[in-house]
Amino acid sequence: MRKIAFYGKGGIGKSTTVSNIASALVKLGYRVFQIGCDPKSDSTVNHNQGRRIPTILDVMRQGDADDMEAFVFQSESGVYCVEAGGPLPGTGCAGRGIIAAFEKLEELEVYERYRPDFVLYDVLGDVVCGGFAMPIRNGYSDQLYIVTSGEMMSLYAASNIVQAVKNQQNKGYAQIKGLIVNEKNIENEGEIVAKAAAEMNVPVAFTLPRDKIVQEAEQQHKTVVDAFADSDMAKRYLALAREIANG
Are strands 73-74 and 80-83 parallel, antiparallel or unpaired? Predict the structure, then answer.
């Protein structure tokens, strides 16, 4: 089992990227968990016809915390979906909610039961403190990819994430595998990202071009890999999934 965390600034297309990677890995024959680690709890909506599934924290609040089937849902495409969830508005710390959710997954031995080949953590990357750093420490994930573009704020968030890992590299943090560039078609984007990656001393692992077919798939509440399997963009996601699987 390989556990991989994906970080990136909110709005960068991280959940879309992770969902397509998950669907692609399933098509390649792997058993895959996708775990949303954002209080919005919308990481897995494109696996579930746009529907938000009950979160771990929802289930815990309802008193069904020992029933893992109450929060683990397998999509029609075969991806196992889990959302960590967050506290009720104004009642607690979202980062602490992630910690509680991870502890529950460990307590119930969810991975031992389902035995996935890959666990993909989709994590809000605007901040790397407290519970939001949980997926990249304490052995929860083996590897880390950062989704970014050539936009200043997304690269700033990426740099913060890299610095957080490097500051804690002797404490069991995940290994940084590189940047996944989700292009926004800004001027000289490739050069901007390449320069920033060199300054971070992190490789550019893969580049995804901007393509309107991504939005067309999301309008159907599906991934590109599932909605437009023969498209060039689906082939790109499959190539990315193969690279991750071989890495």
Answer: antiparallel
